[in-house]
Design goal:
Strand order of the largest sheet: 3-4-6-7-8-5
Number of strands: 8
CATH architecture of the largest domain: Roll
Helix content: 25-40%
Bound molecules: Palmitoyl-CoA
CATH superfamily of the largest domain: Hotdog Thioesterase
Structural class: alpha+beta
Largest sheet: 6 strands, antiparallel
Strand content: 25-35%
Length: about 210
């Protein structure tokens, strides 16, 4: 599959995953409602019988969704002119696991910037986003940045320096940039900024496929 639009890249073979021209609004809606459910679930303090009643509602919803299934997630589509996976766990608007990372911007140097708002469900240390999720955001951002630079590649090494706590409930800016290429190895750096302060920095080596 090829794509001629600027800022887009051809993905690796994606099995038989359906490729959509646009993300169905209802797919995004459902994911958004499930995110709210998860957030409500970690904050709720209702009585046990209400937890049981809520669990029954969730079971009913799960059964409804299982009435018709596909074998593969919706891997690839386009958002704001850039290739995305509908069900990617970081930026996929159709995946409730994804915060999601949104609003990709590409400046004149090719550097990328996106935003994400992670709720309490992503908490690791008290009041802070779990370090694994911090790394996930950065891993995805460097992958996106090298793809935007025309070198789609997979991460083989990701070094994250956690400078200070990354807060949840606060909009995060995730920046990344392609910094060079040596044979199949592609280099990139990135950082997360919250309230104007850098909370984590990453440097990555990726390998083209
Ligand atoms: C996922 C993409 C979707 C794209 C869609 C469209 C774009 C949309 C963007 C969205 C952005 C998504 C961002 C997701 C970001 C992930 O999550 S990527 C997934 C996590 N990473 C992986 O699963 C990769 C796992 N690793 C592998 O499968 C294999 O290492 C690879 C990548 C296939 C490479 O294996 P290989 O072809 O055998 O290559 P190999 O000879 O071992 O290494 C090649 C070179 O790299 C070097 N190298 C290998 N490992 C290391 C290392 N750890 N440290 C230093 N150097 C190393 C080698 O020394 C070698 O160097 P040279 O000898 O050429 O100088």
């Amino acid at each position: 599959m090829t794509d001629e639009r600027p800022g887009t890249t051809s993905p690796p073979a994606a099995g038989h995953a359906p490729v959509l021209p646009a993300i169905p609004a209802e797919t995004t809606l459902l994911a958004a409602r499930i995110r709210e459910l998860v957030e409500a679930g970690v904050h709720t303090d209702v009585a046990a019988e209400d937890l049981r009643a809520a669990a029954e509602h969730v079971t009913a919803a799960t059964e409804l969704l299982r009435e018709r299934t596909r074998e593969e997630p919706l891997l690839l589509s386009y958002l704001d002119g850039n290739q995305v996976s509908v069900h990617n766990p970081v930026e996929g608007p159709g995946n409730p696991l994804a915060p999601p990372m949104v609003g990709l911007e590409i400046d004149e140097s090719g550097a990328t910037s996106s935003t994400a708002l992670l709720g309490a469900a992503y908490e690791g240390p008290p009041g802070r986003v779990h370090g694994g999720w911090v790394a996930s955001l950065l891993d995805h951002a460097v992958g996106r940045a090298v793809a935007v630079a025309g070198h789609p590649a997979m991460t083989v090494s990701l070094t994250v320096d956690y400078r200070r706590g990354t807060p949840h409930g606060v909009p995060l800016t995730i920046n990344a940039r392609f910094t060079g290429k040596e044979g199949r190895k592609v280099f990139a750096t990135g950082e997360i900024v919250a309230d104007g302060e850098t909370t984590a920095e990453a440097s990555a080596i990726l390998v083209t496929y």
